[in-house]
Design goal:
The structure is a single chain. By secondary structure, the chain is mainly beta. It is built from one helix and ten strands; from the N terminus they run E-E-E-E-E-E-E-E-E-E-H. It has one helix at about 125-135, and strands at about 5-10, 35-40, 45-50, 55-65, 65-70, 75-80, 85-90, 95-100, 105-110, 120. The protein is globular. The two termini are about 20 Å apart. The structure holds thymidine-5'-diphosphate. Thymidine-5'-diphosphate (TYD) binds near residues 34 and 115.
């Protein structure tokens, strides 16, 4: 993953403050079927450590900050999420790890599919095998 893909959520601000509107299929590159958020993460806790076969997500840190490591099987990239106006795009078959959550961090995630435990790959060797299977042989 040489470059991380981000989407911008321009704030609709006025003198009262700011507002961000997120529209399925417009501001994010997929139809949103599920929204969840991670908050109250304890100090020193790391989350994730899995990939999905068929799930696209956009992660936005609406309060606080955290770090996300994305790994496509050949390149690992680290992203700092610290803005309610920037979403990190996470495609299919990407191993993700989340670290260094601030105490106040609220990480909002928009997802292209409903929750499906069967879509998770929680073993890194299995993830690498799935990536190899997905690539056309030359
Ligand atoms: P998990 O995906 O393992 O969290 P993380 O990757 O952030 O460490 O999810 C934690 C728990 O929440 C697990 O029991 C599954 C459940 N869960 C749902 O029921 N629905 C959801 O949409 C998500 C994301 C998790």
């Amino acid at each position: 993953m040489n470059s991380l893909e981000w989407v911008s959520f321009p704030p609709l601000g006025d003198d009262r403050g700011s507002l961000v509107a997120i529209e399925a299929g417009k501001t994010v590159p997929f139809e949103i079927k599920r929204v969840y958020y991670i908050f109250g993460t304890q100090e020193g806790v790391a989350r994730g450590f899995h990939a999905h076969r068929n799930l696209k997500q956009v992660a936005v840190c609406v309060i606080g900050h955290c770090e996300m490591t994305l790994d496509n099987g050949s390149v690992r990239s680290m992203a700092r999420l610290d803005s309610p106006t920037k979403g990190l795009v996470i495609g299919d078959l990407v191993w993700r790890e989340m670290h260094n959550f601030s105490e106040d961090c609220v990480l909002l995630v928009l997802a292209s599919e409903h929750y499906d435990e069967g879509d998770y790959i929680r073993d890194y060797a299995e993830f690498l095998a799935a990536v190899a299977d997905s690539q056309p042989s030359v």
